[in-house]
Amino acid sequence: MSKLLEFVTGQQDALLRDLEQLVNMDTPTGSKQLVDQAIQVVVARFQELIGGRAQWIPQEKYGDQVKLQYGEGTGQILLVTHIDTVWPEGETAKRPFRKEGQRLYGPGIFDMKCGLLQGLYAMHAVISQSAPAKNIVLFINTDEEVGSPSSRRWIEEEAVKSDAVFVLEPALGASGKLKTSRKGVGRFALEIEGVSAHSGINHNEGVNALEELAHQILYLQGLTDYGKGSTVNVGIAAGGTAVNVVSGQARAELDLRIESMEEAERLSDLILNASPVLKHTKLNVRGGIVRPPMEQVMSRDLFASAQAIASELGFSLEETSTGGASDGNFTAALNIPTLDGLGAVGHGAHALDEYVELDSIALRCALLAHLIQQQVKPSN
């Protein structure tokens, strides 16, 4: 058994106590007070275990973000995690942390409170062995579940100072695959102006914005190209004021997923420059790419290292791509080597039955610790 695996195995009971406490704290993204309370608990535990530096980044709308740091030197390794969840206040009272067999359940345990603590204990393990030659930063995001609107700036600021980024989002599938590429995300809104008229008296003088919307939906959905990994989804559509009125207005919102920036630019241009089909209608399209794609090239070397470490630890490791986005999209787009999915193994992100596999926690924590150690040990 490696020294790091031996260390985290010995710390597992403490990690599980911390996990139970953290899972039983509601942390909905929209409640600054609740998220701040949970952040305080994590920071206090960091000080007890490691005693490094905590740098607060105050926020008005969301919970205060924090950078937990240890080490010196010119280089830096960045661990990215988030504490906010999709679950509302009161959810933990309904479904508190519980253990059933070898599975641990509770709101946000899989996405991603277990991964957060694995990052904390991986830092603890590395520092217990020797002083790192680089700075290790654990960044705790408080608004990831709504797209990281306030945290993106700070994540990118830390990423450009880093030699590698490890994202502690949950692994994918029962085998715990790492995510070496993620699709980028675009969000767009479409507003249509038609010509209102009475549907019974002067129907022929109207131009129905809903009819134009139907044309646009078919056009936009038709931009999907599974061969290129590109999807367009019109998820919200509405319009009209009354059943006896030729609708003078309509609107839609759509989601774009793409695998490369080249495809992001191509499809964004087509969406933003959509033309009306019906005469006397006007289109107003706004939006753009909110998360750039995380392309596989930025994960290649880190994944090879992780695969070799996993083999030494006695398990196999595979890679995968996913249509979901994370903060790793931001860091990879800055050309910083980024490896994602290093958090918990389990299932059910955003689902009532989300769980973590108990017997995977120490192994995944040790995997992360070895990756960190590999990056921060002094060069010969």
TrEMBL record:
Q: Does the keyword Manganese apply?
A: no
Query: Which residue numbers delimit the Peptidase M20 dimerisation domain?
Result: 181-271
- Write down the species: Paenibacillus baimaensis
Name of protein: M20 family metallopeptidase
Xref: SUPFAM superfamilies: Bacterial exopeptidase dimerisation domain, Zn-dependent exopeptidases
Give the record's keywords alphabetically. Hydrolase, Metal-binding
Would the keyword Metal-binding turn up in this protein's UniProt record? yes
Q: Which Pfam families match?
A: M20_dimer, Peptidase_M20
Question: Which InterPro entries is this protein grouped with?
Answer: Bact_exopeptidase_dim_dom, Pept_M20_glutamate_carboxypep, Peptidase_M20, Peptidase_M20_dimer, Peptidase_M20A
